[in-house]
Design brief:
The protein has about 160 residues and is an all-alpha fold. It has helices at about 1-40, 50-70, 75-100, 105-130, 130-159. It is elongated and about 50 Å long.
């Protein structure tokens, strides 16, 4: 029972984050298959097959990072604040897919992804002092979102 209790925050965190990815993917599947391929894209656009595996790994890392912070003391104000900002960035993550793909709006997507980047940078900043490993787990995600901001901006500019 102790192992299950210790694993619970990790299982919950990973499932929650991966769940956001699944919901966003299902909600935007049609646009991803029809609208997105027809857009003009910059030379630095990755191949389509790369997005799913990258996001699966990033969502898992997010879930583990959140669990590590949660275990530092869920009732502490600093932990609650950090997890609150984490929740905001996670909601913005899901919202980006709905706005960019679902609404077929690169301009709207750019607004959302800049807000996501800001919330994610704040989350990373607040995670580091609570649990350095949690902060480091978010660094690849922050790098990917930084790249995604540039990609989103370029697609908006080209279309």
């Amino acid at each position: 029972m102790n192992a299950l209790k210790a694993a619970w925050p990790f299982v919950t965190g990973i499932l929650l984050c991966e769940g956001v990815g699944v919901v966003a993917a299902v909600a935007t599947q049609e646009s991803v298959q029809t609208w997105y391929p027809a857009l003009e894209k910059p030379f630095f656009t990755p191949p389509d097959w790369l997005f799913a595996p990258v996001w699966i790994v990033l969502y898992a890392a997010m879930g583990v990072a959140a669990a590590l912070v949660w275990r530092e003391g869920a009732g502490q104000p600093r932990v609650q604040g950090a997890l609150g900002i984490f929740a905001v960035q996670l909601l913005l993550n899901g919202a980006w897919s709905v706005v960019f793909f679902g609404a077929r709006s690169p301009a709207g997507g750019l607004v959302v992804i800049v807000a996501l980047w800001s919330a994610l940078a704040a989350t990373t900043w607040f995670f580091f002092p609570l649990r350095a490993a949690a902060g480091w787990l978010l660094v690849p995600y922050l790098a990917w979102v930084t790249y995604a901001v540039a990609l989103n901006a370029a697609i908006w500019g080209m279309n």
